[in-house]
Amino acid sequence: MSTVEIDRNKVGGQGNNPDLPVNGRTRPAITAAGLLQLAARIGGQVVVGLIVFLIAFPSLFVIYLSFSEKSFFTFPITAFSLKWYQNALSGQFLESIFASSILALTSAIMACVIGTMCAYALNRYRFWGSGLLTNFFLAPLALPQIVLAIGYLILITRLRSFTGVNLTGTLPGLLIAHVLVTTPWVIRTVSAVLLQTDRAIEDAAQSLGASPRRTFFAVTLPAISPGIVGGFVFAFIISFGNFELSLMVSQPSFEPLPIRIYHYLTEKSDPGVAAVSALVVVFVAMATWIIDRLIGLQKIL
Questions:
Q1: CATH number for the domain including 136?
Q2: How many structural domains are present in the chain?
Q3: Do 56 and 149 fall within a single domain?
Q4: Longest CA–CA separation in the chain, Å
Q5: Residues 54 and 97 in one domain
Q6: What's the pTM value of the predicted model, to 2 decimals?
Q7: Distance CA 206, CA 220 (A)
Q8: By C-alpha distance, which of 184, 177, 183, 190 is closest to 256?
């Protein structure tokens, strides 16, 4: 070995020792604990990817089947066609989509008004039983929809026997049912934003002479508007796709889309249902993305 090479090794301080610095940086030692952490990280990513695949696969498979040209389900698809989407956007399906949209829009607006007032009262005022009242308002989120539907049907049946007011099979009865199931989502989204809103700005507005009403509309309402918009989108999605309550209360002249799909499947089975379902999946995915961009799903889930 030449003198120049010996001096270079001495100055660099490296040689064949892996623990010595390399170009001024310490080479990390590979240990058993590090290998276990790497394996755990990779295993966690694999598990998460598998869960996402299992959740998304049914929807993706339905979308795939909706492009079939034949009048029955086949796999794999031999020829692709858009005729089932044309069928989904015409005739009875279009009427049901329009009916569900009107019902969901009306119930979402009513749920936003009621839910915003409830969320503001429960978060800005502390009184005896406020926690119990909060759990009561959010209870429909934890109850199975079929249980809620049966309970609501029993309630309106008893109401008719005692007062003579008939809500069974009527549009007002269906609207009340959808408002009942969508309002908790608005309360939850608006409450999540209220918890992140600094109350000092409301106190500052009132200290400058603003009345409580003016403070709410000029200061608080703009601050919580992302939560209201997110709650509106959530309420619209829940109402649009609700099956159990609609099945119990709906009337033949006003048939929401889930009920129409149910009746269609009892008569025939073709990719037309898959096309309608694919449109709903795309709509829900876009609405969920909007909610995530506005307030973040991690704040309300």
A1: 1.10.3720.10
A2: 2
A3: no
A4: 109
A5: no
A6: 0.72
A7: 12
A8: 177
